[in-house]
Amino acid sequence: MVKPRLKRYGAKRRAVYRIVAIDSQFRREGKAIQEIGFYDPQKEQTRLDIRAIQFFLERGAKTTETVCDISKRAKLFDQANT
Length: 82
What we know:
Blueprint: E1 2-11, E2 14-23, E3 34-40, E4 45-48, H1 50-58, H2 65-73, H3 76-81
Antiparallel strand pairs: 1-2, 2-3, 3-4
């Protein structure tokens, strides 16, 4: 099963995350199918590829709780319905 989830980058105490679509059986830093976003918790920056996320969700992907929260804060689902 494919899941959109966080992939950690950055130095110690300066974590930056990429939101990637990855097979759920792969480890966190494993080979991703596609990069679909970016999240920097320190600067509160978020960049999401809405089309790519919708593509995977339509095909049965289930997001992790963290990615779901980030999407809600970015109002992804409000933008998708308009």
